Amino acid sequence: MLSFNNLINKIKQVKAGKKSRAAAAGAAPLIVPRADHNISRKLISPSALKVLNTLHEAGFEAYLVGGCVRDLLLGYEPKDFDIATDALPEQVHKLFRRSRLIGRRFKLVHVRFGRDEIIEVATFRAPPEAENQVDGRIMQDNVYGSLEQDAWRRDFTVNALYYNIADFTIVDYTGGIADLQQGMIRLIGDKQVRYREDPVRMLRAIRFMAKLGLKLEPETEALIGELAPLLSDIPPARLFDETLKLYLSGQAAVTHELLCHYGVFDYLYPQTAALLHQESDNYPRVLLMKALENTDKRLANNKPVTPAFLFAALLWEPLRQRWIELSQSMPDIPAMQRAAGEVLAEQIQTVAIPKRFSLVTRDIWALQPRLARRQGKRAFALLLQPKFRAGYDFLALRAEAGEPLQELTDWWTTFQQATASEQTNMVNSLSKSEAEPKRRPRRRRRRKPAAKRAE
Asked: Which of 147, 182, 184, 210 lies in disulfide reach of 254, CB 3.0 to 4.6 Å?
């Protein structure tokens, strides 16, 4: 199998004298023969091959496109395989029994294989029409086009490479091969226009930097800081999906640093960002980075990761500050519950968090003050809580980040591993002051004098 550098060298030899970057739409594409690239059908999902071959046999054009082609060229294993075709969505839908039409801005077909695998098939798109844009943003996108038009309307050159199932060649209209050689992420076309069409492209650029170790082309990079406020206009539900891609792709720590560097994090998690900017206290950043590093390690070891824990860490510092404030006038646990409600209510204005995750996030937070109360039967009851392990892990994270909770964390670590009799002894050995935080005396209601009551 050819390395990527050998691929470039062979392309130069085979295509001597031909420019590898198309100067503009309308220029002939670079066609890389099968002998000159390293993409083998053995590396492609059998399900994707089945879709490609079915479309081809039905008389349609069919190409692997986007990130899967880019990753295969770089030697990575693609997470999923996307397909582009000249067949209309309804025609694709008829070819596959287990398929469904999705999408509003642009119709797509999802072809399902087994329980988990989905192959996404999109019809070639043309540039959006002016009447389908508002303030530069694409609002409606059901305009079908040719392969060349589809290539030029994609976001980055490295994502505009096509693998043709008909002859196993790679088709490059925009210079993606050359940019991959240079380790460059470049927006296609007028950079300002393309960011305004879809501001989420700024997040995608940062994610590709972290994932692939590539650098941004200077103009592609320079505009991010200027246009980052456009993210405020993106629906919170869409930014939730982007958050999962940013933080659950295995490079969460690097991605977060890049988001902060380019000022983008401020428009995703403004409450947390405001506290991270306070240089007097490094605790918020330490906790968050440790949480993200742990997330990366778990993903690298194929361990499960829940988005709820991620959100608990991302929003912990604004939650903690509000909790401390409310605790001045009410008990710890009700203060925590109210603080959680306020912080989440404000957060979902920018990045929506579905209840299936926000409820678990609240459970993790709610366990923090409860874990300090171990007297009597409380410790045994907490062990039976469905979210105990997540709450304990978060307590350990807080201790690791510098809060004075190491002794409490060690106690719970030992308690989980102890026998029943050892656990009883551990609880009995706690002094009341260690087991329970001090409570403020209840304020007695003054009774009115009898004479006044009679009146």
From this structure: 210
